[in-house]
Design goal:
By secondary structure, the chain is mostly helical. It has nine helices and no strands.
């Protein structure tokens, strides 16, 4: 499955190289439509499983342990990276605070007067999303379903939710959605803290 996703992505990149700017606007509208359709399909899958929401209710506050762990892991990763690159610890923490939300974190860093940090943040978070598509099937199969939520970060509520849902179960998909929403709310707070 990961090979098909990766091959599809490469084909998309190749096609994107040949698409003009006028076609890019149309492609963005089409991809948004497919994303909404994908989310609708995942929602139907979740809604069909009546036990999921009961299990989530039983978990209560524990459901937030996954996004808290993702935040801690991402910030620790940013701290470690600061030892190997010329960016400061503060800058690496701001970059790693993007949690996969490349369209926001890169802009926040760029608007704060750090275009290099904004570019790095954009690329790091795009790569995080791509690696999520590739790694989730392996993680779900060989580690556990809960760990399959973490790589997606904030995107676990939208673009990577389908791959998580497909490789886990409906309960984990709901937990991934909650994690993604939680992280999406944290990103606009965390990135400016480290700017």
């Amino acid at each position: 499955m990961s090979i098909i996703i990766f091959a599809t992505l490469l084909c998309g990149i190749g096609a994107g190289i040949f698409v003009g700017n006028a076609d890019a606007v149309l492609m963005e509208k089409i991809s948004s439509l497919f994303l909404w359709l994908l989310l609708f399909s995942v929602g139907i899958d979740m809604g069909l499983n009546q036990q999921v929401f009961g299990q989530i209710k039983k978990l209560g506050f524990k459901i937030l342990l996954i996004p808290i762990g993702v935040v801690i892991g991402s910030l620790l990763g940013g701290s470690v990276v600061s030892f190997f690159f010329p960016q400061s610890l503060k800058e690496c923490l701001a970059i790693s605070s993007g949690m996969g939300w490349y369209s926001l974190s890169g802009i926040l860093l760029t608007k704060a007067g750090n275009p290099i940090g904004g570019t790095i943040s954009f690329l790091a978070n795009v790569i995080r999303e791509l690696l999520t598509f590739i790694s989730v099937p392996f993680i779900a199969k060989h580690i556990n379903y809960y760990c399959a939520i973490a790589p997606g970060g904030a995107t676990a509520m939208d673009t990577t939710l389908a791959i998580i849902s497909r490789n886990t179960n409906a309960t984990i998909a709901v937990m991934a959605f909650v994690s993604g929403v939680s992280l999406t709310m944290v990103v606009p707070i965390l990135v400016p803290i480290f700017l």
